[in-house]
Every structure is written in C-alpha cells, then in structure tokens.
Amino acid sequence: MKDLSVSKAFNEREYNELLQQAVAVIETSRLQIAKQLNSIAMSSYWEIGKLLDERKLDSKYGDSIVRRLSSDLKSKYPDMGLSPRNLWNMKRFYLRYCQYDTKVQQAVAVLPWSHNLLLMSYDLAPQYIVFYANEVFSKGWSRDMLNHALKSEYHLSIQAIEKSNNFNSTLPALQAGYANEVFRNSYNLGFIDAVEPLKELELERRLVQKITAFIMELGSGFSFIGNQHTLICNNKEYRVDLLFFHRRLRSMVAIELKIGEFKPEYVGKMNFYLSLLDKLEKAPDENPSIGIILCAEKDRLEVELALQDVNKPIGVAEYQYLLPKKKLQELVTNEMKNSNNDNK
User: Fold this and answer.
1) To 10 degrees, the CA torsion angle through 279, 282, 283, 287?
2) Pairing of the two strands 236-246 and 251-261
3) pTM of the full structure
4) First-last CA distance in the chain
C-alpha cells in the first residue's frame, strides 16, 4: 500500500522530469564511453604512425613494406581499418600533431578517425584544431557537419562575435570565465525539423521532445530539470520555459524561448525569474542561477544597453534552423516531387 500511495503522489509531470533527467545521465555516460573508445583507437594509430616515422618509411621507399605490414596486420585485426592507405594516414596523424602541446593532442585523441582525417586536410592553427575538436565532441557533429563548418570557416565567424551577456560584471571572475566558455551567441535547432517559424509553445514542445539533441547542442554538463517549471511567489505562479542544471557551473540555468527579435523587456522578466530561483530553489552550495534568452534575432547594441545595469547573470543568444545536409536533401527532393506532381 505504501508503494501505491507514493505512486499516486508522484504525478505525471514529476515522472517526466525524472525520465528526462535519467535520459540525460545515460546520454552523458554514452558520450564518455565513446570518448574513451576513440581515445584508445587514436592512441594505437598514433603509435603506429610513430613507428613508421622512426623507421624513415615514406611512400617512395617504404611502399612495399607498408603493404606487407598492412596484409599481416589485417589478418590478425580485420576490423581495425589497417589498409596501406590508412597506415600512411597514421604517419600523417603522428607528424601533424607531435609538434603541438598536449592540449592539442588530447583534443584530437577523442575524435573519430574520419573526423581526424578531415581535420588534417585543413591548415589550421593549434587553437582552432582544439576549437573544432571540442565542437565535434560537445555537439555530436557528424563528419558532414564538421566539413560544412570547416568550409564556411565557422571558427572565424564565432571568434568575430562578441558575447551578448553580462557575466563578467555579475559573476566572480572564475565563474564568469566558465560561463563564457559554456554559453554561445548562437545555437542550431535544425534537429527539430522546422522549415518555417514556430510559435513559442510549439518550439518548446519540440525541444522537450528532442531534449537529448538539444542538450548536445548546448554542450556537455547540462541536466534537464523540466519545462514550464513553476515558481510560486505571493500565491502567484510563474513558469520558466526550460530549466537545466549545469554540473561544472554548479548553477541552475533558466532558458526563455522567444520566436521573434529580442526586446529589452525580456531582460526584466528573466531577472525576476532568476531572483525567484535563487530565493526559492537554489541550494546553499550552488552558485547564482543563470538566465539565457533564446530568440530568433537580436541587435547587439540593444542587448548591451538592456543588460547594462542588471545584477543577475543573463545572456542573449540567437537560434537558427540549420538542417543537416541529409535532411536538407530529403526536403529538396520531396519538394521537387510535389512540384512535379502539381504540374501533371
């Protein structure tokens, strides 16, 4: 009977919050496992590349030796991708990154091999190699997505954008530094399959429906608490669109969704929500709650002025619906089919 009463008291909303948090824990674990597996494979490839370099083998004088080595290794390890071409790529991998410090080496060590081959084909400065490696791992980029980012020089566009937040003036220096690393100015919501503007509730519904993908886009460290999170003050209810907790920051993170352009009054509302969260729900060992206003577009100067005298840490970010290449191709193909049918 005790279990039954607990079950009744545990309403559907609480269960959904529990489920989403459990999913977030599992997905984080899966990412860590993938990271470890990639690291083991890259370590093997690194050492093989080092062996080839130490023996002065190159494509001109060592081709027959590498072919023989490939044949013997494949007979023992048929599933490790030990073709002659890949063995030469392992030497390239070693030579490319042995000159850099451990930060660069550790960053590329957790990437899938196909991503590393693509990354090596671009002449990037060390800090940008680390940048792309972190983006791939934290956001789960496919090889095609990495290729698109490299071709569009994504690292330069991100670097050029100033942070639209007041973290430096509202948080201790160390915490502000962490927050600036965690939060970005723009997020890609292409995974929700929106081909036209959505209403706020529909946007929220799709993000919750694909919360795992949204967490991957936000980056590592986020745990989902719930949507339409209720805060009660003076017998009045206030609802936060999406509420997360970030482990490294030790902070709750409130996200408000806006379908149009940024408006200064959004900051006042978020400031109030953060005050409620800190007063009603923040644990003594946690840091101040952080707010992110996610809107379709923003004016940098307008954001700067709106945040100027606010004492709560708030950031303003834009979202876009950038579809993965495969999904975009499907939509174009379907559109062409429909167009052909209409013309019959």
Assistant:
1) -110
2) antiparallel
3) 0.52
4) 66
How confident is the model at residue 291, as a pLDDT? 98
pLDDT in tens, 26-58: 766 666 666 676 778 888 889 988 988 888 877
Closest C-alpha to 197, from 328, 326, 319: 319
- CATH no., domain 163-326: 3.40.1350.10
Q: Minimal CA–CA distance to 279: which of 309, 246, 238, 307?
A: 238
- Distance between CA 84 and CA 70 in Å, rounded? 5
Give the whole-angstrom CA distance, residue 117 versus residue 124: 13
With tokens 């060590």, the residue in question is: 109
Half-sphere exposure of 129 (CA within 13 A, CB side): 26
DSSP, collapsed to helix, strand or coil, labels residue 252 as strand
Quick one: which of 301, 263, 309 has its CA closest to 162?
301
How far apart are the C-alpha atoms of 313 and 152, rounded to whole Å?
A: 32
Report d(CA 95, CA 48) in Å as an integer. 11
Question: What integer pLDDT is reported at residue 28 of this predicted model?
Answer: 66
The domain segmentation of the chain, as residue ranges, is: 1-99, 106-160, 163-326
What is the Rg, in whole angstroms, of the alpha carbon atoms belonging to the chain? 24
CB 249 within 8 A of CB 230: no
Say how far residue 51 (Cα) sits from the centre of its chain: 35
CA angle 303, 309, 310 (to 5 degrees): 80
Neighbour tally for 262: CB within 10 Å: 23
Q: Which two tokens stand for residue 290?
A: 């952080």
In the chain, % helix, strand, coil (3-state, to 5) comes to 60, 15, 25
Q: Which of 67, 106, 61 is nearest to 86 (CA)?
A: 67
